[in-house]
Amino acid sequence: MPEGSTPALSPQGVPYAELSHYINADGQHIFSRYWKPSGSPRALMFIVHGAGEHCCRYDDLAQILTALNFLVFSHDHVGHGQSEGERMTIHDFHIFVRDNIQHLDLMKKQYPDLPIFMCGHSMGGAIAILTVDERPDDFSGLILISPLVLPSPQSATSFKVFAAKLLNYVLPNLSLGSIDPSFVSRNKKEIEAYTTDPLVYHGGMKVSFGVQLLNATSRVEKALPLFKVPVLLFHGTLDKLCDIRGSHVMIDTIQSEEKTLKVYEGAFHALHKELPEVTSSVFQEIESWLQQKLGGTGSSNMV
Ligand SMILES: O=C1N[C@]2(CO1)C[C@H](C(=O)N1CCC(COc3ccc(F)cc3Cl)CC1)C2
Predict the structure, then answer these.
(1) If residue 33 lies in a helix (H) or strand (E), which one and from where to where?
(2) Is 167 in the pocket of ligand 1 (CB under 6 A)?
């Protein structure tokens, strides 16, 4: 460390020298996470988290994938978790996509011969769709868990949408209210975990952030008619945070030859953190879809 300079610290006060990270195009430290299989990896999975949360919430899914000999990687979006940046503040949604592509290119350099899949949840689903839209030849498949394709009228009420568009010019930092934890899942343990997680942002969503989410849904809508990558989609019928109609629009609009939508009756938003019977079904569907895509078992516990 050069004389007199102070080490860069994460929002939690941890030196980035002690954390895996990369530095984005704006010079911000982006906390990154890697889950490596015991054997040599047969494919890469890029997990993309949603608004206000962070990539370490995907440890359960990552464990399932490393057991299939996937090398799983992810990062905390700028303004989220252990990455730098004002909490849940972005002046252009494309920054999330740009940082995704930077991480993708870093991993492609390290593992040039492995197929790459992406899995996005909620806002992370919109980021994933727009990332694949920019780099369609880089991906063998896309998994989406309750993606943000259309805003939900319950969380993005027409008043909030109208207010966000109008107020963005005069009061961009005004709060639209925080994400209701009881909308995230029906699983009380998962609601508790979300509510008590210090790396989750529990503050109000800024008007300016809401406008960027709306911009994202417009960009996603434009991308869908040309989308050709294989897609596995999951959505709960009682999702109050991202409208299930968005997943129906997506599955009907994309040109992918292989496209599947699994609907979970009565389920809420975070299907990977829902009631055990839902989450185990989602993980099994992901496992079999990936095995089918890669042709064969490849599981480390094959007997
Ligand atoms: O496990 C998880 N899932 C999480 C949290 O923890 C849910 C969260 C996530 O990404 N979204 C849920 C909220 C939704 C709000 O949307 C809007 C609000 C105002 C507005 F003006 C326009 C829009 Cl579109 C965006 C997507 C990630």
Answers:
(1) strand 29-35
(2) no
